[in-house]
Amino acid sequence: MSRNFTIIAACDENKGIGKNNSIPWNIPEDLLFFKNHTQGNVNEIYGSNAVIMGRKTFESIGKPLKKRYNCVISKTLNQEDYKDQHVYIYRSLTECLEDLYKKEHIIQVFVIGGAELYKESLSLPQCICVIINNIKGTYDCDSFFPYFDTSNYNLQTCVISPRVTCNIYNKLK
Asked: 42, 55, 67, 73: which has the fewest C-beta neighbours closer than 10 Å?
């Protein structure tokens, strides 16, 4: 593996990311930010960007994300059940990344959740960027973004709206 990937997430003030397999807030500007960052070439059905998610995240979304190459990490789902839906099932994050890095049409790779996949992804050297939308307030969450050592990253912050601030952590070389 030689190419890099980005983690993208949204968290409340307690680092909460979800409750009962769903996002506990409905903030359109956060969803638009996510879409604009992860969507690839809008002229292709597969897109030029890949999104990697765990099974629970995929099931909570309920369908493949349009104009993105959808990868699901699961030990229970079967590829044959999704072959016509543009969803690609992998047994591990490593297997998924190795396959994606062979695909010339993939420009960017994003890990989009959930908590276990975020934790595993943060431990890999190919993770060069972590984008976290900080949602103002606290919500009833049962899933949380894992701790990571931010001293290895350069931080850029931008305000998306009064309810959302984005922190972009770029790994130091």
From this structure: 42
| Contact between residue 109 and residue 53 where contact means Cβ atoms under 8 Å apart | no
* Among candidate residues 61, 106, 103, 111, the one with its CA nearest the CA of residue 82: 61
Quick one: CA dihedral 69, 164, 55, 92, positive or negative? positive
CB 26 within 8 A of CB 135: no
Mean of pLDDT values over 89-111: 95
pLDDT higher than threshold 80 for residue 107: yes
**Max Cα separation, the chain?**
44
All residues at 6 or more sequence positions from 165 whose CB lies less than 8 Å from its CB, including other chains? 133, 134, 136, 157, 158, 159
114-142: pLDDT as tens digits: 999 999 999 999 999 999 999 999 999 99
User: What's the pTM?
Assistant: 0.94
